Amino acid sequence: MPCLTRCRSRTGGIANGCVGLERQFTKLNPNSPTPDWDFSCYQANAVVINLGTNDVGHGVSSAQFQTAYTSLLRKVRAAYSQAWIFALEPFRSRYVSQTQAVVKAAVDGGDSRISFVDTTGWLGSGDLTDSVHPNDQGHRIIADRLAPVIAAWIGI
Questions:
Q1: Average pLDDT, the chain
Q2: Deepest of 6, 13, 32, 34, by most Cβ within 10 A of its Cβ?
Q3: 3-class secondary structure, 114
């Protein structure tokens, strides 16, 4: 399951297959030892980040999350220097202030191609599979709401 941080179980192993995208973003396959992705071959116009929901369940502190999110944004920006980055508010309203703070710091630091996307009210209980993760209907709702946001920012 995707997490921002690499979550550890109580015994020291990786918790429930939790992949820490902050560390694994550059990998060709984050689930196995592989070389780094060659970002020069493909350049994204937009990058959407929606992380935080699974980190809470693994005991990641607010400070750990904010540090890891900052690191991930730096890696995304280094890989995709001209892409618009859309940092979504996690759908379960977890780490919202930390996500907003990281985006604000990036903007204040001169990154004009990053935006926080408020997702408050996008999903209802019927749009989730397990009270946490979107089901098919939830994913359609997210796409329908997110597409115009992206289009407005990148001009398509």
A1: 86
A2: 6
A3: strand
